[in-house]
Write a structure and sequence with these properties.
The complex is a heterodimer of chains A (156) and B (690). Chain A has 156 residues and is mainly beta. Chain A contains 3 helices and 11 strands; from the N terminus they run αβββββαββββββα. At the A-B interface, β4 and β5 of A face β21 and β22 of B.
Chain lengths: 156, 690
Amino acid sequence: MPATDQIKEEQLVVFEMAGESYGVDISRVQEINRVEAITTVPEVPEYIKGIINLRGRVTPVIDLRTRFGLPAAEVTARTRVVVVKAQEEWVGVIVDAVSEVLRIPLDSIELPSAMITSTDTSFVRGIAKLHERLVILLDLDRVLDKSYHLATAAVA
Amino acid sequence: MTETLHFDMDAEEKDVFCQEAEELIGRLDANLLAIEQKRNTPEIVQDLFRAAHTLKGSSAAIGHHAMAELTHAMENVLEDLRQSRLTVTPELIDALLRAVDVLRYFKEEIETGVPAHVETADLIRRLQGFVEGPTGASSLTPFASVAGRGLESGPTNGTGARPEKLLRISARIAGDSLVPAARALQILLALDEVGKVVWSQPEREAIERGQPLRELAVLVESELSAGQMPAHFKHISEIDSLDVKPATELAGEAEEAPGESQEAESEVAKSVRGAAERVNNGSAKTVRTSVERLDKLMTLVGELVTDRNRLLQAQALLSTRYKDGELVGELAEGISHLASITDELQEEVMRARMLPLEHAFSKFPRLVRDLARDAGKSIALNVEGQETELDRSVIEMIPDPLLHLLRNAVDHGIESPQERVAAGKPAEGTIRLSGRSEGNHIIIAVSDDGHGIDIEKVRKAAVAHNLVAADVASHLTDAEVQELIFAPGLSTASKISDISGRGVGMDVVRNNVERLHGSVTVKSQLGRGTTFELSLPLTLAIMPVLLVGLSDWTYCIPLTAVTEVLAIDAQTIHGVDRSEVILWRDRLLPILRLDEFFGLPGGKTEGTGTLPTVAVHWGEGYLGLVVDRLVGQQEIVIKNLGHLIGQVGGLSGCAFLGDGSVALIVDVPGLIKRATRLGSELNVHALQPA
């Protein structure tokens, strides 16, 4: 494949949450695990579920539903922890389910302001339209930045 | 654009150079002070000379000419001192100490690459003045000849009664030396002083360029015999072997008087054997390694400790389930062996990271001398136990609190000479800085024989600053009042430091020490002096803890903070004000239900009946931590909670347990401070106004 083609597309790990599809850049994803015992840490924002031992690394785990102001969900057989690389450490992100790895053409990505989603758009860096599907591209750095709060309550 | 300096070495060589320079500068400082305090022994002067000489060699090797010139001038003065051609005067010591200060600037300059812009001409002239003084027969050698570029022969040349002999010197430089060329140049410089180098392999130019080498061969004209020669290289480190022979002998022309030759040879043999013995004794058998590598090793051992705990746990389960299984016994044996090897390995790695306290103490004698001088006081600093070893991570953290304590002792502890004499004390005050190990801890004490803490003044000041109510203050014991100097409100009030004799920033000292999982206590007697004791763990990496259960979770309480494990009857808990207390050892012990505190649902500490409680202490403060259950003791590797979580009140980190789960570590000092503003003692008194 010629190099120019590679630049024209992005590879995403796509996961589901509250009926929406979200995508993160595959290069940021370290691994995908089932939910195991998480040690609760007191006095942290509610969306930080605690810490786990990921092969010798202290790894914080966040619940993306809580982070987005969505109602909490039971852990099911499909619930996954997507471990992503943050600035200084790995962070586990709990999602409803991981569905697929997608290649999307860059020209199918639109800026978030044009669309209405159930997610606060400040965590969104773009929306990919693929046939009949919409994949919300997350701005991971904002999602993982503790000092970054939801600008508004989630739109139902 | 800022100016930066470049020297003839790479980054690793720079580290080695700076480390060595730091050591040597420290030795110069300490020995000069020793001489000033009338402990003028030949060994000390010899050591001073050696240190200046080595610094000269290495600074010349990297091309720092100002540093080489200054050390050369120092060396000349010290040589005269060594030969008793000079006597020690305050002016002489001052000039040499000033030179040491400048060396420090130079070292920093080399370390950072930022020019220090120090002018040394005056200082060098001052030093030369001592050597060229009216009484002294000058032994001054111009620097150019020492640097080996001049055409003059060595200083001893031409003065000797005997004609020069040609000696052949072969040296092997340690294979692990990072700066072999510098060592070779040191040898050449040493030879320059006792004779004239006529040939060397590799050539001097190549050595000065820093070309790596293992062997050095030199032909030197000198009036010294082959036997006298090795003594001149004693101070050069990283030399594996050194051989000196008359060059004629090598050429097979055994013309010398047989007696002399034999004598020379036997001395050579002796010196070689001496070198070999040094190697076998281990003093030369060391390897410099990077701190990063040691840290990595420590981390790996930490992982191993976690895995050992995990295996032991699995094995215990297996043994209960399959009691008579043959394989289970086999496995148990293997695991127990692995466990003991892990223990040993941990011990060894920890030992490899140990440094003597000297590293932290070495700069204090000079500092106290200068501070005392500024304050117009006469103070002797006695340093003891500096050979005591502890982990380098701890060593690196202690100079700050110690500096603070010493400064306080000088400024506020020791009285002026007049006051002291009036009080019937010797005019010279004494500060003792000592280190000793006690179990898993090291105790560092700073004590002075000054006027001590005036309890009544502190008591009044505490009331005046609203730290305690007047009726409470009057019931505090002396020890409790002394504790008050660590309170933030009191210790930062400058007025108090004058009247209490102590206190500026004492809360900072305590916070720093507590961050190291250590504690600081004070004992003082009015008119007699004050002693501060710092208790520090030997290492920060691995910590014995008591594991306790809270709801579904396991928490770690550092064993060093545990006073006693109690089983308290829920009915004996009294609610006073908004806190709860029990009666314990004739005192009221505030208690904290940990599950509630951490907001963990499902805890059982609200139950009736017997509640397991861990009595913990910090400084003079005590607190009872009510838990759901006691799990056991374990050694854990401390890990921090990470960037996203950050600092959490009541926690000091986390650890991995045997089953791979994560347990949080309770921050005992933090909890005690939180439970009561000044520690439980004060609270206890606040509860029972008499």
